[in-house]
Amino acid sequence: MITNLILTLYFYESFLLSIVVSFIMAVFIWPFSFLRPVLHKTLVLCGKFILFVSGSRLYLQNPRTYDARQTYLFVSNHQSLFDILVLFTLLDDIPFKWIIKKSLFYTPLFGFTLWAVDYINLDRENRYKAFRAIQKAISYIKKGVSILIFPEGTRSLDDTVNEFKSGSIVIAYHTGAKVVPIVLKNTLFIQKKKSAFINPLPIKVRFL
């Protein structure tokens, strides 16, 4: 219990540090769109750092099924905050834009970073804005930039996969991009929804 408490404190210290560092980078990079890949790489490094501090380790159950020189639509199940850290770590060799729910764009500091790196703001409560977000994702794929999305739209509260929303299907249909499903196991149990404590576990990853 004491060990987990100390680990949890270190985790949140590294999390807050990463938010501040990426925000400072975003402030300087924001006026210069050509530097967005640098900010994305900063977020990748921050994700790797936080995941390392958490004590959880990745275990690939099969080889990666993508070529970093190509463009893809990555889809992953979603169970906790750790999914984001894991995916940043896994996909560190390929540029991508993340489709992210609207509320995260309005969080202090981190929200500005999401705007600055030009991730895609998905507002499911507004059909027009949701349509525009999907159009933007399609445009990025046609420009050679991969897209990453949680097709369930929200976290699963157990170890099952929820019904997919239509967004990922529309993107795949209109771009013809190869879809790469990623299955994450155990992230649900590292930090359960509405719990602050960190319980490090091996994270199993499978590319389909």
Q: Could you name the ranges where pLDDT drops below 50 across 5 or more consecutive residues? A: none
The mean pLDDT is 91
**Estimated helix fraction:** 40-55%
CATH superfamily: Tetrapyrrole methylase, N-terminal domain
H and E order: HHEEHEHEHEHEHE
| CATH third-tier fold name | Cobalt-precorrin-4 Transmethylase, domain 1
The total strand number stands at 7
Give the spatial strand order of the biggest sheet: 1-7-6-2-5-3-4
Largest sheet: 7 strands, mixed
Q: How much strand?
A: 15-25%
Q: What's the CATH architecture?
A: 3-Layer(aba) Sandwich
Task: Please give a quick description of this structure.
With 208 residues, the chain is of the alpha/beta class. It has 7 helices and 7 strands; from the N terminus they run H-H-E-E-H-E-H-E-H-E-H-E-H-E.
Question: In words, what does this structure look like?
Answer:
- This protein is an alpha/beta fold and 208 residues long.
- The protein has a single domain (2-207), classed as Tetrapyrrole methylase, N-terminal domain (Cobalt-precorrin-4 Transmethylase, domain 1, 3-Layer(aba) Sandwich), CATH 3.40.1010.
- Helices cover 45% and strands 17% of the residues.
- It is built from seven helices and seven strands; from the N terminus they run ααββαβαβαβαβαβ.
- The chain has helices at residues 2-29, 36-54, 82-90, 110-117, 127-142, 167-175, 187-190; strands at residues 57-60, 72-76, 96-101, 120-122, 146-149, 178-185, 202-207.
- The chain has a seven-stranded mixed beta sheet with strand order 1-7-6-2-5-3-4, with helices on both faces.
- Strand 3, helix 4 (110-117) and strand 4 (120-122) form a beta-alpha-beta unit.
- Helix 1 (2-29) runs antiparallel to helix 2 (36-54), helix 1 crosses helix 4 and helix 5 (127-142) runs parallel beside helix 6 (167-175).
